[in-house]
Amino acid sequence: MKKALIVVDVQNDFVEGGSLECKGGKEVAKNIKRMLDSDKLKNEYSLIISTQDWHKGDRHSNGGHISASPDYIDTWPTHCIANTKGADFAEPLIATDFDHLMLKGYGSPSYSGFSKNAYEKENKSLSLQEILKTENITSVDIVGIAFDYCVAQTAKDASKEGLNVRVLKYLTATINQENENLIRNELTDLEIEVID
Ligand SMILES: [Zn+2]
Question: Is the pTM of this model over 0.85?
Fold first, then answer.
């Protein structure tokens, strides 16, 4: 069984001080880094993959995803504009921590790393599905931000791809706390294990 770790959207705009900050985000970044630096991790995972929300510049709504009057459900304040500090990995994570960098959301919303508009940074024609298939990955663990949006959506899509999926909840942060139980139930209904 080959396993990959997917680190979802641990970016400056999603941690404390960012335009769409998620409480506990900085701590999540630190704890993921600690995990990435451990020997246990190197034995457990064949592949470490990140996703980054990666939107067109301020003038663009990115398909209605970014709004001047966001509802924090379907529309959001300006965040993660491509090649800005807000879209960078939150410290202490850096690009070289990962084997593959997936970008998503350029011009239209995409919560999942498996979305149609997600692509590998170095090789734009590569999708997350293709990377996992090429490496014969059968299981994925998913961590990152936000539990109730991009982590959950990436986990659901991974499950649809026929992968064994676990969400390491203790390495995630949530935007809307009131969503937490609902999302947890949706994931467990799909036989996605949520590990506290
Ligand atoms: Zn976004």
Answer: yes
pLDDT < 70 stretches in the chain: none
Q: Write down the catalytic residue from 33, 104, 156, 169.
A: 104
Peptide bond preceding 146 in cis form (omega within 30 of 0): yes
Q: What local confidence, expressed as pLDDT, does residue 39 receive?
A: 81
Question: How remote is the CA of residue 115 from the centroid of ligand 1, in Å?
Answer: 13
Nearest to 55, CA basis, from 45, 65, 43: 65
Q: Would you state the pLDDT for residue 106? A: 96
User: Can you give the residue ranges of every domain in the chain?
Assistant: 2-195
Q: What is the CA radius of gyration of the chain?
A: 15
Distance CA 54, CA 103 (A): 6
Please identify which of the residues 26, 80, 148, 150 carries the catalytic annotation: 150
β-strand partners of 49: 6, 100
> In the block, which residue shows the tokens 């335009």?
19
Q: Which CATH class is domain 2-195?
A: alpha beta
Give the per-residue pLDDT at 41: 83
